[in-house]
Design a protein that fits this description.
The complex is a heterodimer of chains A (603) and B (259).
Chain A lengths: L4 E10 L3 H12 L4 E4 L16 E2 L11 H11 L6 H20 L14 E2 L9 E2 L5 H15 L3 E3 L2 E8 L5 E8 L5 E11 L20 H9 L3 E2 L4 E8 L13 H4 L3 E3 L13 H4 L6 H9 L13 H13 L9 E4 L6 H7 L1 H11 L8 E10 L2 E2 L13 E3 L16 H22 L9 H16 L6 H15 L6 H18 L12 H25 L22 E7 L8 E7 L5 H8 L3
Parallel strand pairs in A: 1-2, 1-9, 2-6, 9-16
Antiparallel strand pairs in A: 3-5, 4-5, 7-8, 8-9, 10-15, 10-17, 11-14, 12-13, 13-14, 17-18
Chain B lengths: L2 E10 L2 E10 L6 H10 L20 E4 L2 E4 L13 E4 L6 E3 L2 E2 L2 H8 L18 H11 L6 H5 L1 H4 L11 H11 L9 H6 L11 H5 L6 H18 L1 H9 L7 H4 L6
Parallel strand pairs in B: 1-5
Antiparallel strand pairs in B: 1-2, 3-4, 3-5, 6-7
Helix pairs in contact in B: 3-6, 6-9
Classes of the chains: A alpha+beta (603), B alpha+beta (259).
Chain lengths: 603, 259
Amino acid sequence: MTDYEHHDYDVLIIGAGGAGLRAAIEAKQRGLSVGIVTKSLLGKAHTVMAEGGMAAAMGNVYPEDNWQVHFRDTMRGGKFLNNYRMAELHAKEAPDRVRELEQWGALFDRTKDGKILQRDFGGHRYARLAHVGDRTGLELIRTLQQKVVSMGTDVYMECKVLRLVHDEHGAIAGAVAYWRPTGQFVTFGAKSIILATGGVGKSWKFTSNSWESTGDGHAMALWAGAELIDMEAIQFHPTGMVWPLSVRGLLVTEGVRGDGGVLRNSNGERFMFNYVADMFRAETAESEEEADRWYEDHSAGRRPPELLPRDEVARAINAEVKNGRGSPHGGVFLDIGSRRSAEFIRRRLPSMYHQFMELAGVDITRESMEIGPTCHYIMGGVKVDADTAATRVPGLFAAGEVAGGMHGANRLGGNSLSDLVVFGQRAGLGAAAYLEGGSGPRGFDRGEVEAAIVQATAPFERESGENPYDIQRDLQEMMQANVGIIRNGPEIEEAIVALETLSERVRNVAVAGGRAYNPGWNLATDLPSMITVSKCTARGALERRESRGGHTREDFPKADPEFGTFNLAHSVADGRWDGEFTTVRSPLLVMPDELKALLEEAH
Amino acid sequence: MSQVTMRVWRGDANGGDFQEFALERQEGEVVLDVIHRIQATEAPDLACRWNCKAGKCGSCAAEINGKPRLMCMTRMDQLPEGPVTVTPMRTFPIIRDLVTDVSFNFAMAERVPALLPPPMPEDGYRMYQEDVERGQEFRKCIECFMCQDVCHVIRDHEENKQHYAGPRFFIRYAELEMHPLDTNDRRDYVREEMGLGYCNITKCCTEVCPEHIKITDNAIIPMKERVVDAHYDPVAWLGRKIRRRTKRTASEASVQPQP
């Protein structure tokens, strides 16, 4: 038996984005020993890319805003597939989680009377997003990072976790990982683990996600015995860059529309007026004049249709392009230059200005942007208890994008950054309560460690085999084509077959060179996670024979009330990444009557 | 389609050399795209650090034709004709190929005395836009560490890394110093422990900042003035001796507040 570098913690946190860092602060404040493991350097996690803001019903701009309205907006945006309790806790606690960031150094934009300024976003009835220009994610991650560092926390940077390790009773006992700079293996003994690994978007060709979003946490939770829910619910953000091709998919913040930007087709028409679903008709403007009045005063008109929830807008753009009214590079036009002053645009949207100027040679204060849908976020994830973030595996918790339930079938913009801090904090509390209960691992399954290391190093043993980049590219193209924004049964069935073929190819991947900072090998160790989560997405997409939120079936174009009563939950019995998956219908939690009443109110 | 030649430095702490790659030029590409194409085809083990590919995370800094740039924000069609040379940042130890060991910066971050605000009122702090804007400029920093890379004090003098925070952290100290809520005085600490005096304001850092932060004019020079005021202004000195201090001194400031 080989000896590896080893560290022990009360709480091991995997992932150093907003949720992981917030969880670390909470656990540290409760006197627990905490280690954070991240695939990248500290401060580079996907949170840093969030632009528009974090949603919290503080009522600083519209005093009539409150948690009840935020709860209602979140549930409607999620097409009622949400874990209602998560949506409730999120709406109630987000204001405190935002305010406390200022104790740790965050500097949000201000109202005239010195409070935190809030901006409009899709699906939110009131201006609700605390923000810093269009770099709110950077502000969030830097604030939490600086707080964590000031508390003296151990951070394992550029360290990739392969597998979770159990004790002899099936409870969580630790994890096995490797250092990317050296390729050396390291084991962690942990009384509890909080997964905060983010999303899965790297399995699609056109994505706003970085190389890190390979679904490691989703997959490790599944392999460790937890359930994944709603994996078919993938958010395609309506506005990604479409040109140049090399930046296709790069995010364009919803803040452009929140601050007055509008969508036009090749005829110059504001086409979103033609795509208002019945569910949103009563609260959406009927004319351009009415919509434009709303920007100045929300009581003077109803919301512009450009600010419908993201799933609605993405489908509309897709339809315009399909019907021949797209832009030259296959998107539509997003115009703010003709509607707001250059000074306003540069102050409110500095990174968008910079991004288009540098990468596309487009001056957004004068010209329209060409945009189209891009894979952005997974609503689905590890099934957790709302109050504690606990999974069904003792000692395993999950928070942030890797957790499922909070956003139902579609997430509202701005609800992710607040999700990170609300449930990051709750996961820290949940782990602390678990440890207070005297729970802790008995034993550490060395067999799981050795199996993970054998699997990880196998690509070096093969004389000939496939380039991992070829497999990744084929996976991305296949998922984009078969399980993309608009789906149908036969194509999803093809995807399920293709994923078996890809699994076979992953078992035959070969890597050249050494283990020290070898991106080809790093990708080879990410591929099993990518295949695992893609399988769950495809299975869920096939099984959910309706259209709801981030899951659209052209062969079942309407929402079916029967399908609105359950999540699809995936599990794997034997812990193998290429083992047999089981998919069952898992009934939604029953909502108390007083919360139901909030949803039924006219607005 | 025309060709492009990439000269990429490859090696590790024991040394290395340039490797040339010839590829077809593609419309609109940035340097990082070309590096990725090399990885996906000829050299899957070519080490490079990157995350967002949108100029927001600061991971992919390297020296392109000898100048520190973000690979994700440098368009190939805006570089001069001829081979494109890509080398790792010179100020930091090599890990492999284009990846350097930037742990110096994380060590300096650990030495920053944290913000010490007054207790928060129930409905949050009140601050005004004009007061937060100075700090917001510095908080745009994406920690690409290119300002550290070009700073002569550490680029050419490894020994200075023990007692010199560098431009990235001078803007951090300036941000805290100008923070509307902070009660922690780090002026002596920045002078005595963090080597502010070593900076001779050549503005190399400002020139390479991808966020266009005016590091020298808006952070370093004002910090130098404040440090001088703290030290040599006899009125202020006397005031400090007589009055009860509301701000802390360097030795106290170097202690982190307990969580």
